[in-house]
Amino acid sequence: MLLALFITMSKPYKSKTEVDNIQVSSQRMLKDKLQVINIGLQKFADDLASREVEVVQVDWKPPARGNVRLANLLAMMSDY
Amino acid sequence: MGASSVLARIRSGNENALARMIQGDPILVDVLPAGEAIPELAERIILHAGPPIEWERMCGPMRGAICGIAVFEGWADDLTHAANLAETGEFQFHPNHHFATVGPMTGITTRSQPVLVVENRAFGNRAFCTLNEGLGKVMRFGGNDKSVLERLKWIRDVLGPGLSDALKTYDGIPLKALVARGLTMGDEMHQRNVGSSSLLIRELAPRLARTVRNQSVLGDILAFLSANDQFFLNVAMTMGKSIMDPVRGIDGATIVTAMSRNGTDFGIVVSGLGDQWFTAPVEMPVGLYFPGFTEEDANPDMGDSTIVETIGLGGFAMAAAPAVAGFVGAGSATVAAKSTHAMGQITVTKNPEWTMPSLDYEGVPTGIDIRLVVETGIAPLINTGIAHRNPGVGQVGAGVVRAPMECFEKAVEAFAHSMGLS
Q1: Which of A77, A78, A79, A80 to probe by mutation at the B interface, max B CB count within 10 Å?
Q2: CATH no. for residue B310?
Q3: What's the pLDDT at B16?
Q4: CA distance linking residue B182 with residue B99, whole number of Å
Q5: In terms of residue numbers, what domain contains B377?
Q6: How far is CA B197 from each of CA B162, B232, B366, rounded to the nearest angstrom?
Q7: For chain B, what is the domain count?
């Protein structure tokens, strides 16, 4: 299981009301320049970059490659 | 056992393990016949690279090297006779690692071969490794023809005794400082040893000039050393083994003390789990091939040389050697730096004595922690030579390979069990 999250930010926000208004935000997101933080699959970031979208890639994988048993064992043996 | 006491035991074990790694003081003191350095190495005992393996499961180059060494030692009349003796159980096979020894690629070690002797003066232990034969058709890559055996005889009869006499004229060569300088000269001590080999030859040459009486022999020795950029690899490996052996068997330590492969299996050993091997099928290197060869010719990954990655060099110090990153097909200097930083995510400290100029003198990532490898899913990166899959051919390229994650997952399971966790 690999997760790809896109976090979009439209800027600049002028007020909290504006931020809270999902409809307005969505409209702005589609209209304004996108800045994307992509978590997980590099391919998504590459595709966005190839379309000249500003994107920051965050390397992330599920702990222990998604093996829940190993992840639980590690949780009992780790303090980092 | 409660969670807090488990963590305290691990913390204490790893602190002890890391202190021992950093405190190691490896000195190159001698070159001796293996049978003298390792008294248990009797007739017809053959040490090999990697975890334990029997003849039936050995890869082509490993078999080729064994047949060659059996002829070299006088145990077989020819290669066919040697193979028959191996098949009928006439030889005993053991891992180098079980005898304080390491060997590159096939890693074949037998009693009459000369071995480097490195003494870890902080703890009093010694480690051993055969001398580097050069590149191309050589025994460590499975070569076994007349030229290979003739070179081994010269190494046994001329080079080994010559180096031994030279080394006996002083109190050994401290290796930590030499490696530190080598890192600043663009070496990572696995696939690139140009600077370190030069520094070593600079130490040895005046001594050789004083101890080797025959000018022609002296010329041959100096020419052999000077023509072999990888001569220091075996020294670095011996050093690595001498540093890691005192780290074995520390209660609670999750630090890897050995990574090694025999061309069939990859194995790791973990400090807190004694001398047990955790194995998985070995992977294929990805790299560049000599003209006329392709990945179709390649044998899976092989050799004890991963002891250099275990101490933070090789693939872990890729940033120090941008030239080699391209040679092994790993990419640009930027990618080399990223590789080293990735290895920083699976190690617990940085070695303050071995630093990399290209990373603002950051220390090499040191102390592979099985917990971090499994947690992050980042497998250790290894720089390696590539042998032909058939016996007798030799080296066909160089590249990079990953340690199989399965080894570390098995080790984490076993470690948790040893802590009473399930």
Answers
A1: A77
A2: 3.90.1700.10
A3: 98
A4: 28
A5: 248-418
A6: 17, 5, 23
A7: 2
